[in-house]
Amino acid sequence: MKLSRHTFFLILCYCSLGSCGTPTKALKEAVQPVDPSNFIQENLLQKIEKVKHKLSDGTKADCYKIVTNSQAHEHPMGPWCPNHIEDSKEKGGIWFDKGKVYDVDGHFISNIGAFYADSKWKLYNEDGSIKVTKTQEACEGAAKPNVEDIYKNHCVECQPSFYKDHITTYFIPVNPIYQSRSSKLGRDGLGLAFNGVNFDPPAPTDAILKAHTLAPLDDCGGHVNPHAGYHYHAVTGCTKEVLQKDGHAPMIGYALDGFGIFALYDQSGNKAQGLDDCGGHEDSIRGYHYHAGEPGSNQIIACLNGSKGEMKVSH
Ligand SMILES: [Zn+2]
Ligand SMILES: [Zn+2]
Questions:
Q1: What is the CA radius of gyration of the chain?
Q2: Measured between alpha carbons, how far is 264 from 241 in angstroms, rounded to an integer?
């Protein structure tokens, strides 16, 4: 196709506004390699090493191998479920619905039938005690797609200690490579925080709520499942942040493709603008990078725009 002079200038303008699928040459060059010193080394199980590893595009590339048991140390994990319908919000975590975050206190639990306009909810006993999955057997019967009948109408929580021996290994490309097509998030998560804890794709709220169960996050946006152990579905500002000299939102971790993940709001309280479908955009200092979604959105990032490394869990 021969481009008219007019079309050519239109494309040029469009691209300079940062709306093109592929970043400009200058912005590509601004891509920051992964900085392993951002990770809290004491939280990891091994010293970070550089290895060759196959990426999702089939190429072999230098990757950082990061080995972790996905447990937070700089903030408490939990609580998730309150024990009694009179418990205050300090005894429970948070839940989200239609973009909003709610404290899971005793009142929220006792009122949930009205909240979801569904009279089949009953998460508590006659004496006001809340039905919570206290044992490993109970949590595993409830924290799966086909919730076992006896655990329906329960507040679901699993303890991090049940899975502390699960080892998660990440291979994150040292130099991220922007792809022309984005890729969906898989079971291998989307990246990790600087404390080595997994950032997970959205929690399967439809399956959870259909069984009349609730799987609250703690105030730091994390909870535990039998596969990944402790993981985050929301970024609430609890974990290590790397401040940016120009006032841009702080960095909070890396995506599986090696691009940085940043908080949503900059140091003046302004929300990141011009984000693409995955939750990313670019600037001349950081090149392409992601911003985490609102805590109530059940989405840290939505897809990946770079060649993906890998995350594996061994039990
Ligand atoms: Zn989860
Ligand atoms: Zn940004």
A1: 21
A2: 12
Contact assessment for residue 170 and residue 256, using Cβ atoms and an 8 Å cutoff: yes
- For tokens 């039990």, the residue is 315
Report pLDDT digits (tens) over 84-130.
999 999 999 999 999 999 999 999 999 999 999 999 999 999 999 99
Closest ligand, as measured to the CA of 215: 1
Overall number of domains in the chain? 1
2, part of any domain:
no
Predicted confidence (pLDDT) per residue in 170-218, tens digit: 999 999 999 988 999 987 889 999 999 999 999 999 989 999 999 999 9
Compute the distance from residue 286 Cα to the ligand 2 centre, in Å: 8
The amino acid present at 181, given as its one-letter code, is R
Q: How far is CA 246 from CA 158, 266, 268, in A?
A: 41, 9, 11
Take residue 147 and report the two structure tokens written for it: 């919730």
**Could you tell me if residue 224 is inside a domain?**
yes
Query: Which residues are placed with Cβ below 5 angstroms of ligand 2, an ion?
Result: 272
Residue 224 Cα to ligand 1 midpoint, Å, equals 6
Measured in Å, residue 25 CA sits from the centre of ligand 1 at 38
Task: Using alpha carbons, list the distances in angstroms from residue 314 to 6, 143, 170.
Answer: 56, 19, 12
In a domain, 17, yes or no: no
Cα 180–294–260 angle (5° rounding)?
45
Whether residue 24 lies inside any domain: the answer is no
Q: How far is the CA of 290 from the centre of ligand 2 (A)?
A: 7
Give the ligand whose atoms come closest to the C-alpha of residue 272.
Answer: 2
